[in-house]
Design a protein that fits this description.
This protein is mainly alpha-helical. The protein has 24 helices and no strands. The longest helix is centred in the last third of the chain and has 33 residues, at 396-428.
């Protein structure tokens, strides 16, 4: 008995570990192409449902798909409306896995297939140089481990749990069903994987250890438990993430309530279908069919009200502090390419806040200490996320992009430290910062990468103006109208301004270029503007330097 119980415990561990490996491997293999596919193919509700279902079957985790979808919403790749249908499809996808377990996993000797799959995956993982192939290998290992664990789980149920009596719960009537829902919810929350709970329940019901109505209650609870992942992932998340998590909770609660109300009619209908289709009805197939029916019913109920629900949710969580991240949270780290996109968006926002502070100083309003503290807080949070991302396996392009992000964050840190110099310059000359105002206005209002060319042009024009002012300075010193001390002081101010503008503009152009690399498509003229080399300022500024 205890040996079989420990076997079940280890089998469950294999299932969970296999799902985790599948999820990580397939996301590594997908890379930026997953974002492009999402943006192209989730424009219609039906496409969103199909994508959510297929993605869940592929990674064997609706929770992973939910967290990843939250990251895509944060990055602006998916609208809340489109993401809603991906979430609906994800729930339907968990029921497809149930069919796979009921029809294949429990009917065939799957451990004989699992081991060769693990072997093939290990070869790819260990000997491939390509990150994409390594990801595919990791996914195959996870797939094999999942079904190897399922095989051991079936063995343990056949021998250890067949004598466990669940009839006491069934005799409690409605309270027994509600207790089954609660237990399913707790299991799904603890495992953070509803598919693992469904595999457990289908295996139990096929072994005759669990009555079908009670098993159906466990499955309803497992569905409700998936919302815990979305809720936990939004505890310190963005407003967009909180809206999608709320939508996910509403969908799952509504689906669960409908399934509970229609539990008896649905099981009766399934029984009729089973007798019509099969000579010997199978409890595992009945449970898989029940899971599919109530999820599809939930999608049909939510479909007509989604637009109004999205409008309502878009009005929630609108108040955000300056120091709060808008597009980046833990969900963004699920896919490195997604993390790079959102990191570049947040770093660009810091650049815009710095440009706004410089503009306020030039207009005599001074810098806002609260905003400067918020910028420092944002910088610290971005550094934390960059460190987290650096610990993940990255493709060569992603590692290079992360290095660029760090470089440009340091450029912005330099401009933050140079802000007090602008205040001193204004104190020395009220009109000393007027030439810079047009550039700073442009940086504050710029949309990337569309305005890259306009920003570059504005910067060049400013450098020409400053070069003319320096020539005038030299003439004044030569004409003995300005002392060497005063001339040197002015030249130092010019150098500080040049460094501030150079670092701020280079950083924002580079970040805009980086962000554009993770978008689906841009007009040709914008791509040309975005791809122009921001390092051209090195040579240009050297020519303008004193």
């Amino acid at each position: 008995m205890w040996t079989d119980t420990l076997m079940a415990f280890g089998a469950l561990g294999l299932i969970l570990l296999g799902m985790d490996w599948m999820s990580r491997g397939l996301k590594t293999a997908a890379g930026p192409s997953l974002m492009q596919f999402l943006q192209r193919w989730t424009g219609k509700p039906l496409h969103g449902v199909l994508f959510g279902g297929i993605a869940t079957v592929a990674v064997q985790s609706s929770s992973a798909v939910t967290v990843t979808t939250i990251g895509f919403v944060n990055a602006g790749i998916l609208s809340l409306q489109n993401a809603a249908f991906v979430i609906y499809g994800s729930n339907v996808g968990t029921s497809v896995t149930g069919w796979f377990i009921a029809l294949i996993g429990l009917q065939f000797k799957i451990d004989s297939l699992a081991l060769p799959v693990i072997g093939a995956g290990a070869l790819l993982q260990l000997f491939s140089k390509s990150m994409r192939r390594k990801g595919i290998g990791e996914g195959l290992i996870g797939f094999g481990m999942l079904f190897l664990g399922l095989s051991f789980l079936k063995q343990s149920f056949d021998s250890a749990f067949i004598d466990i009596q669940f009839s006491a719960l069934s005799q409690l009537g409605l309270w027994g069903i509600l207790l089954g829902v609660l237990l399913g919810t707790l299991l799904s929350t603890l495992m953070q994987a509803s598919i693992a709970v469904i595999a457990l329940v289908i295996t139990a019901v096929s072994a005759g250890a669990l009555p079908l109505p009670l098993a159906a209650a466990f499955v309803i609870g497992a569905n409700l438990g998936t919302t815990s992942t979305a809720i936990m992932s939004t505890l310190a998340a963005t407003a967009k993430a909180k809206r999608l998590a709320m939508l996910h909770v509403i969908f799952n609660v509504l689906t669960g309530l409908v399934a509970l109300i229609l539990l008896s009619p649905l099981l009766a209908l399934i029984s009729l279908l089973q007798h019509w289709l099969f000579h010997e009805p199978q409890a595992a197939v009945s449970l898989a069919l029940f899971h599919t029916l109530f999820n599809v019913l939930g999608v049909l109920l939510m479909w007509p009200i989604t637009s109004r629900l999205v409008l309502y949710l878009n009005g929630r969580f609108r108040r955000q502090a300056i120091g709060q991240l808008r597009t980046l949270d833990a969900s963004s780290l699920t896919i490195p390419a997604l993390a790079i996109k959102t990191l570049s968006m947040e770093t660009l926002r810091i650049g815009q806040l710095l440009a706004a502070q410089a503009l306020a100083i030039s207009r005599g309003k001074g810098s806002d200490s609260e905003t400067l503290d918020s910028i420092r807080q944002l910088q610290n949070e971005l550094t934390h996320y960059m460190l987290q991302l650096s610990k993940q396996p990255l493709a060569e392009q992603e590692a290079q992009a992360l290095s660029e992000l760090v470089q440009n964050q340091l450029r912005l840190e330099m401009t933050l430290q140079l802000l007090p110099a602008l205040t001193r310059q204004l104190a020395a000359d009220v009109n000393g910062l007027l030439p810079e105002q047009q550039l700073w206005l442009q940086l504050v209002a710029a949309h990337w990468p569309q305005d890259a060319a306009a920003v570059r042009s504005c910067y060049r024009e400013l450098m020409k103006q400053r070069q003319q002012l320096k020539k005038q300075l030299y003439q004044l010193v030569l004409a003995d109208q300005l002392s060497n001390d005063s001339g040197g002081d002015l030249l130092l101010r010019f150098a500080e301004l040049r460094r501030f503008n150079q670092q701020l503009t280079k950083a924002m152009l580079a970040l805009g270029n980086l962000q554009s690399q993770y978008q689906v498509a841009e007009p040709a003229v914008d791509n040309i503007a975005a791809k122009a080399n921001p390092n051209e300022f090195n040579q240009e500024d050297n020519n303008n330097a004193s």
